[in-house]
Amino acid sequence: MNFTRDGRMFAMAMLFAASLQAHAQGGEAPASAPLGEAASADAAPTPSKAADRALRRRVLNALAKAKGLRASGISVRATHGAVTLEGWVPEQAQIDQATRVAQGVTGVNSVKNTLTLSTF
């Protein structure tokens, strides 16, 4: 009975080891890279994430500077130039204005506006 259980555990351990090896070979870091290099590459943000964050900040700044727009209820998501506006504004005209302002920011390819009206 112990032999059967030990055999199953050995088979599972071998399967796990093979899975880890296959994952390591298929990953972004080359198999010959030292562990420290691969770990530091994962810790640094990718250029596209940094660009998305910078675009998000530019859109938020533009919205905050727009006259007649209450931007405190607006949140922005940016992914590869596609911007999504979420949250609320007190007037319908501000929904349209927020879209126009976001479209005018350099780097914005498209704007999806999901803003809603609220009097809070």
TrEMBL record:
Cell membrane in keyword set: no
Key words, A-Z: Signal
Residues in BON domain copies: 51-119
Signal sequence interval, chain numbering: 1-24
Transmembrane helix among keywords: no
Superkingdom of the organism of origin: Bacteria
InterPro entries for the chain: BON_dom, Lipoprotein_DolP, Transpt-assoc_nodulatn_dom_bac
Ranges for region Disordered: 26-52
Protein name in the entry: BON domain-containing protein
